[in-house]
Amino acid sequence: MKTIPRRALAIGSLLAVGGLALAGCSGGPGGTDGGGESGSDSNVVTVYGTIADTEAELLEESWAEWEEENDIDIQYESSKEFEAQIAVRAQGGTAPDLAIFPQPGLLKDMADLGYLKEAPQEVADNVSENWSEDWAEYGTYDGTLYGAPLMASVKGWIWYSPTFFAENGYEVPTDWQGLMDLSAQIQSDTSAPPWCVGFGSDAATGWPGTDWIEDVVLRQSGTEVYDQWVANEIPFTDPQIASAFEEVGKVLKDPNMVNAGFGGTDTIVTTPFGDAANALVSGECALHHQASFFDGFITDAGGTVAEDGDIWAFITPAFEAGGDEGAVVTGGGEIVGAFSDDEATQKVQAYLSSPEWANSRVSLGGVISANKGLDPENASSEILTEAISILQDEGTTFRFDASDLMPSSVGAGTFWKGMNDWVNGTDTTTVLEQIESGWPSS
Asked: Which pLDDT does position 27 carry in this prediction?
């Protein structure tokens, strides 16, 4: 079973973090109050994160040789309750040495409360040399670098069958209206919905819908509006955000457009997000919107992912014809922050921020990194190689998944719920007001 890069967040985690404001700082296991001291096992470094199952095994494999060479034992622990438990551990004095944060916003919360250590110089040098300013900013709080990026994903891919396109004379669209026109043409030619969509993801149900909105806000209104929206300087009720919902609604709220292979629009919320891979490979579905990691689901469904294979993908096109196609993308990833600053912890944090580690992990398959020192040839699939090229292109403007940057009461709360209500028929104005209500009052 694949692990989604977009982690399910504990809805109450923001409250848990907020409740720590008056608590004192703490070190990692075995450390002293105030942190920063070496634990009883100076060559043991504890790492805590959301990466689980097969991906966790590959993570441990990626640093195994380095561990032996440096006589450091990296002990990794995975938790589905990471977002809530990291705050509890920090308050209780049992924080790990390092944490892999799937949310830049949560890392910044912990930095604001004084729990995280400033990144050591070697980490800062690696970030300066190997990441864009956008990526460096995700590990920075109040002008101080606390964490380095780890892995990444490029969102906004439209998955399709090259054979189906060729047989029907369809071409990859170069602008948003072209994508809408193509959708209408496929519907007319086949008398069936072209798109398949699944929001289902257990406690995180709804997140695929937020990805749609984020892609359109960025492409339709630009980076300045996107950044202001993330900071709530532009609310969900703003006409520019409402316009993005209107555009996405041309697909997600139209029974002529969805839900191929599953039923009507009422099946979107109940369809597990990964099930779309089966519909694509079987030919029931012609178009699907999902991140670069989806190639693994296609493979599991029995399809080959290649430009001349069963399934391929193109980036959601620009809104304006002739726009910078692919130059502006959304995505996700993780940031590694430290609760301890002993020598072994700093060495591990530096290694995880290096091109050496990125190449080690990516060569094992299934993931990518935005590290500029990563060799795209190490990617395990053509689509991942393409995603790395996009991230490494100096002309690419990258924006982290907006809901991951927002407070969890919104990003993992009212935004997810609002998307579910919206595709199930609630009007846009009501949904936008409901999502906006999730923002903390202070």
From this structure: 33
Number of domains composing the chain:
2
CB contact at 8 A, 328 and 231: no
Pair (288, 163) in one structural domain: yes
Residues whose CB falls within 8 Å of the CB of residue 153, separated by 6 or more in sequence, listed in order: 5, 291, 292, 293, 331, 332, 333, 367, 368, 387
Domain match, 429 and 308 both: yes
Write down the pLDDT at residue 80. 82
Same domain flag for 173 and 251: yes
Measure the CA–CA gap between 215 and 326, rounded to whole angstroms: 11
Taking a C-beta distance cutoff of 8 angstroms, is the pair 89, 96 a contact?
yes
Report which DSSP code applies to 376.
Answer: G
In contact, 325 and 332? CB cutoff 8 Å = no
Q: What residues contact residue 331 under an 8 Å CB cut-off, 6+ apart?
A: 152, 153, 154, 155, 291, 391, 398, 399, 400, 401
Are residues 418 and 288 located together in one domain of the fold?
yes
Residue 263 domain boundaries: 157-315+407-436
Coil vs helix vs strand at 26: strand
Q: Note the pLDDT tens digit of each residue in 173-221.
A: 999 999 999 999 999 999 999 999 999 998 889 999 999 999 999 999 9
> What is the Cα–Cα distance from 257 to 173, expressed in whole angstroms?
17
pLDDT surpasses 90 at 12: no
The secondary structure of residue 275, as a DSSP letter, is: G
User: At 86, which helix (H) or strand (E)?
Assistant: helix 82-92
Q: What is the mean pLDDT of residues 354-361?
A: 98
90 Cβ neighbours under 8 A, 6+ residues apart: 20, 23, 25, 26, 110, 113, 115, 339
186 in Cβ contact with 287 (< 8 Å): yes
Our measurement of the distance from residue 119's CA atom to the centroid of its chain's CA atoms, rounded to an integer in Å, reads 23
